[in-house]
Amino acid sequence: MTFAFIRHGQTDWNRDDKLQGSSDIPLNAQGREQAHEAAGILADGGWEVVVSSPLARARETAKIIAHDLGLELGPSYPSLVERDYGPLEGQSSSETVARWPHRDYPGAESLDSVVSRGLAGLARVADDFRDRDVVIVAHGTIIRYTLAALAGRPLDAIRNGSISTFRLDGDRWEVLTVNGQPLVPLAGATDSAALAADPRGSAG
Known about the structure:
By secondary structure, this protein is an alpha/beta fold. The protein has a single domain (2-201), classed as Phosphoglycerate mutase-like (Rossmann fold, 3-Layer(aba) Sandwich). 34% of the residues lie in helices and 17% in strands. The protein has six helices and eight strands; from the N terminus they run βααβαβααβαββββ.
């Protein structure tokens, strides 16, 4: 099975550098355009179904992509919602990261929890759509740290509307691209599906 993780299109909070998290903020016009652009990139890729997080910005992105490509719009998965940033939601994202560079924000969901949810969500999608190639629309943090766990290495921040691909071969996950670019193997890297790696080392 091959999967594409797509980060939803831009919202006003993305544009204004606000931590979004579990807050249900809709797409803006630029975000809808990014969804159409992502669909164009995915065209002729053999995709069969689109699923998403239930948050409005992800669900609308999924609907646009499914419509543009003439694909089935599958269900939403609560396990794929964005990290809950608690009382920091709506605050400046860059200022928050500068104050807590390890992303250990007070009152926020832990990154370990985010990764556990992400992996559980992928397992559920894989079980629901056996042998089908699936587009999954979700959120920047859960995509970034779930893929980092699958790849066994830190990854850069995920851009709005970007496409990252990975596959499941038997019980082995392999990350192929991140933000539309091939994931270049690291010298001396461990198996790409080494889930024991700490995903919190990412600097981006």
